[in-house]
Structures
1.
Amino acid sequence: MDKVIGFSEFSRQSSKGIIVIYGNLLINILKKTWVIFLLLITRISKFTHLNKTYLIVAIIGLFIFLLIRSYLLFRNFQFKIEGSNFILKKGIFSKKNTSISFDRIQNINFSQNLIQQIINVYEVSLETAGSNKTEISIKALSLEEAKALKERISTKNSNEETKEEIIYPLLNIDTKSLLKVGFSENHLQSLLLFLGVLLGFYQQLEDIFKSFINEDTLKNYLKESREFIFGSLFIVGTLLFLLVIIAIISSFIRIILFHFNLRFFIKHDAFEIKQGLINKKMIVLKKGKVQSITISTNPLKRRLGISYVVFKQAISGKVKKKKEKLIKIVGCKDFQLEKIKDTLFKTSEFINSEKEYPHAYYKFRTVLKKILWVLLINVFLLFIFNGLQFLYFNLILIPLFLFIAYKKIKKTFFKVSENLILVGNGAIETHYTYLEIFKIQNIKLKQTIFQKRRNITDIVLQTASGKIKIPCVPYNRAMNIYNYMLYKVEKSTEKWM
Amino acid sequence: MIQFQNNEIINLPDITEIIFKKVEKKYLKVLLLNTFCYFIIASLLFFLFTEKVITKKMPEYTGVFYFVFILFIISVFILLIIGFPKRKFAIRDKDISYKSGVFIEKMVTVPFSRIQHIEIEEGIFSRLFKLATISVFTAGDSSDDLEIKGITKEKALQIKEFISQKING
């Protein structure tokens, strides 16, 4: 047993891995070509007998080819541990050797998609802070192997930590609370995400349809229906109602798919998160690799007494998949938040520091920006409607935007303590971002000529997980903070990652 | 329990007290040359566009278009010249800073201990004047790191050497 799990020799994945690889290959091909398949099936009656035979042979050929490919992929995928490096060999024709040292590995994540759940294997992915290419995922390991691998990598000295504490989850969310979370989500965002997915499908379909339908008839049809839609207020109303329903349902679906059975553990140097319905995921997040955390809530969630926490990790500037590096824990109660904060930082430091609010100019700037938005919307409406009746919209628009501006002004503040910064912002939602000063990468002051006249400036703190802005700070205070933060960063010997 | 104290450290090194150096004067020539080249290409495109589209569809506006374009070019040059003396940099024992900007004044400081790598670059015109650009990169968003344009190549190499020593030593 010990020999198998030692990883000192090159070893392959569990042989069930072939199924997983095969499944993934099939799904990938299906994703790209489903439209063509759909078309073939609807037209199958028009095919001659000979054509049908060709088609079937081709499809079977494809299946066999993929099977062989996945077998070869499996055969050529080998990994081992050498010293404190993870070494991977892969590739059928062009061989690739990758070596990653343990301390560059940010996360070791387990996940299971549907296939992997059925045959009971785990996908283990090693995340690094660098470029995407160095990321490694092993498609099929048994739970034992996966755990052993994680243990080897996450503890630098393998003999140091053998004691496994009994760990109970800090957070364990059942379906009922998850429904609460879904209910209080930002439904507008869900709607946009849903529409985004829909648009993706639509574009795939459009490409195909273009070749079948005369473009002019399509355009005419669209034009007519557009006129019809804008002509009838009733339909607009119904559409809006439908959109609201869709938005709420998609929030629920999104939340349940991703966060089903969410459990959150605190271990001595890491957080562990397990969640997911169809794709089960287990994420290990080392405490030291967390760059900043943001605690957010909105009025609905506040009522229900829940917030969500986003952990931000280091991202490299070139990687666009920023979302992947955000780890979100939904449905936290207040005491759980305190616990999370306390394990990461000494938040008690803030007791002695005062909340500082931006200079009055910030109010002016925020209101001005909102007024510009209102004007922009008015111009847009001007083009849609023929008459000037749209001006009535301003009865809602102006108070709404002013209200948002008011909320935004009220929620913007910052606090600086010996080692920490807390930045509050948000308009409808409320966000509190916590950052340890020594994790700052560089500091910038930005001062427009309007700010210069009032002797104030914006501070931008650059971290490895993105920017944090503190707007409109009096210049002397900003200089004070600037010098202090530089001093802290330059003095610190702690590793920021 | 002893109350946590956060007394201000009196002798905190103050960035406003150090003297920022201006970049090489020669670099203004490089900047002007570069911009001039861009504008030659832009003018050609603009000329073609105006002649082909504007003069045919709304000839009465042709003059306005040219006027706006020329005004734009002039203001870019003026901005470059006004903004040039504002480009300043400073190197301390543990960090490097850069200031610039006319309408939006910016100052950025990168501690040496956060630098991931350094690049020295020479453009075509810069090479004529033996000038170079030094850029430092941190783990943050690379577009927001520090870049000093228009110092002598010697100086750039010196800075690079200095920082490398500080990082490794």
2.
Amino acid sequence: MLKLLEIKQCQFGAEKPLLNPFDFSLVSGEVVALLGENGVGKSTFMNLCVGNAKLHSGEIFLGKQNQLDLSYRELFRKISLVRSHLQIPERILVKDFVSLGLESRNFERVKSALEKTETLEFLNRPLITLSDGERSRVLLAEALVRNTSLLLLDEPTAFLDVPHSLALFKLLKRIAQEENKGVLISTHQVEHALRYSDRLLVFLKNGNVYSGKKDELLNKGVLSWAEIS
Amino acid sequence: MAFFLKRFCFLAIIFCTLFVLVLSCGETFVSPIVLIQSVFESSEHSVVFWNFRFPLAIAATFGGAGLAVSGLVMQSVFRNPLAGPFVLGVSSGASLGVALVGVAGIALTSLGILPAAMAGAFLTIFIVFACSRFLIGKTGILIIGLMVGYLADAIVSLILFFGEANALRGFITWGMGSFSRLSITNVPYFSVAIIIGMLPACFSLRYLNLAPFGDEFVKDHGISVSFYRWLNLLAASFLAAVVTAFCGPIAFLGLAVPHLAYGIMKTTDHCFLLPATALLGAMIALLASLFPNLPLQALMSIMGVPVILWILLSSKGRYHA
């Protein structure tokens, strides 16, 4: 198992640090769920990993490379971020959207990514006409077509009902295992995260950060804010 | 790919036909064969060809293409389907330059108008971009451009209010726009300027595809937002300024042709949309140039609006406009 993402004593935030310094690593083949209440910094952390947020202290490594030494283009080739709150233009077709993940035209890779997410039937449809569940899978396809080793998803279950949320978690689990990717998913669906993730990363409002196996964190009472013990 | 090739071939054939028609039609019709002869041999038609029809065809081709591409870039960068080449006040700035020349009493000949329009247009670009440096985000640029445009229009109104009848007539004539004003000596400068203005968009296809999704999405895909935004907005403004300076303000083309191109090519991929937009812009400008004695702006709106409406309404339910 390769260490794909390593966070060392990081503090981040727009103006002042949101959390206490913490360490975290993500290895290939595993799914880690990022949990926490609204406003603790989950989305900011996701942005930090792709170089779009301010790092106050600490270091971030992608593989063996320091993130600060990488250009936006190099980051693009190593890490994909799926944003749930994406402004979608009215006209774009699914096939054109998924192609955005490629630097040069390759229709076969687009089809392959859509097949993995079971959305090939929507190839020629406008993205905006899809349901929330269908759209979230197409957004995932756009990230998959990039074929990066790291896959980050920022609240992809935000607008999904229970069956669609479960389906997405199962799909991510399968992708992580079959393609040896490291997957970090932030979500408010705590029970689904407990069921389908390998480890948890929890941000608390008091600034503390915990990461580790589910049982370990449950025993510490880290998820008491979600009324789970 | 075959779908796009067929469409491009179809558009290219129509473009060539229109280009030849513009060269052939005028007060007298000159057949294409005689035209070709007059290119290589001095004849009674050579003077008309080189001094009037060829510059007209070139002005329409490059001017139409330039304005259309400028509009497409503005719509993609600002994520606004109603944006056009003149949202940053370029046309208003050029109009102000021309109006000031009229007030200053310089005769409204091509020599006077062209530098005045150029100066007004480029000064507007300078003011808008200088002020925008202090703002974050493209909404600020848009607002500053609109405000500068309104201010320029207001000053023009005051100048016209106090202006003399002869000067007013000249300004109004300039304001109607025309591709007939380009002289043969200016053809190389005009064409090269338009090509230079379109080059940044050609090298920014990926950025233009990503821009409608927002700045974070662009950065996520490894592209520098600020560099490409500034480059493309400057280039689009430059295109609008050049065409306005040489031909006067020409509305409709920049706003509507990108939508027409989308309706025909059925894709948002700028790799296909950009050349289609340029080609269609040239075609519509050439079509309007077949009637050089009619006001250009009015003519293009009358021709183009029904076409746009037909495309939008016939596409309902197949894709969203």
